[in-house]
Specification:
Helix content: under 10%
Main location: membrane
Structural class: mainly beta
Subcellular location: Membrane
Shape: rod-shaped
CATH superfamily of the largest domain: Immunoglobulins
Number of helices: 0
Low-confidence stretches: none
Mean pLDDT: 92
Order of helices and strands: EEEEEEEEEEEEEEEEE
Largest sheet: 8 strands, mixed
Protein name: Ig-like domain-containing protein
Number of domains: 2
CATH topology of the largest domain: Immunoglobulin-like
Keywords: Disulfide bond, Glycoprotein, Immunoglobulin domain, Membrane, Repeat, Signal
Pfam families: I-set (PF07679), Ig_3 (PF13927)
Length: 192
């Protein structure tokens, strides 16, 4: 007769990051005798947990949960409990869904007379919210009174346009997961 032994986790990933729309496998493998049975739960920030049941996007098979076509609502703490007659083992995998950053600069090109003002708008999509920095002809652009950065640095406003303001402007959006950039052109009226 076999000596029974409580489940011991041998494979799981504490942190998993995957892109929106991708598919992901969360393994939970435990050794034990008799062979353990697995239950999966999704736990929210308040510690409430609901048992995962199979759907068209989610399958649990032995010690693996597969989620297809990831959505933001799939984020959270996935708890696996491996149980047999001798005991149980709990493992956790925190799933983070990454939304790729996209940046757009509007307008992409503008012509302004000397002495007038120019406004560029950097619109950023993606999660989490990114920090925005600006460059002009590859040099970092800093606010100095005449040059203003507004709306969490999403809007660049240049007052009293001078000749040297003409050129290529870039906005860079960055977060801890991703980066994106967009480019626009400022021309002076009557100058080429």
């Amino acid at each position: 007769s076999h000596v029974s032994s409580a489940p011991k986790a041998t494979l799981f990933f504490p942190e998993v990051k995957a892109k929106l729309g991708a598919h992901v496998d969360l393994p939970c493998v435990a050794q034990g005798h008799p062979p353990p049975k697995y239950s999966w739960y999704l736990e929210d920030e308040d510690g409430n947990r609901r048992k995962l049941s199979d759907s068209d996007r989610l399958q649990t098979s032995n010690g693996v949960v597969t989620i297809r076509a990831l959505r933001m609502t799939d984020e959270g703490r996935y708890v696996c409990i491996a149980r047999n007659a001798a005991g149980e083992e709990r493992t956790e995998s925190v799933l983070t869904v990454i939304v790729p950053l996209q940046a757009r600069l509007v307008p992409q090109e503008q012509r302004v007379e000397i002495g007038h003002e120019a406004v560029f708008n950097c619109s950023v999509q993606g999660q989490p919210v990114a920090s925005v920095t600006w460059r002009k002809d590859s040099q970092q652009l800093l606010a100095d009174g005449r040059i203003q950065l507004l709306d969490s640095d999403r809007v660049l406003r240049i007052q009293s346009i001078r000749r040297e303001d003409a050129g290529i402007y870039q906005c860079f959006a960055e977060n801890d997961r991703d980066a994106a950039q967009a480019v626009a052109l400022l021309r002076l009226d009557g100058w080429y």
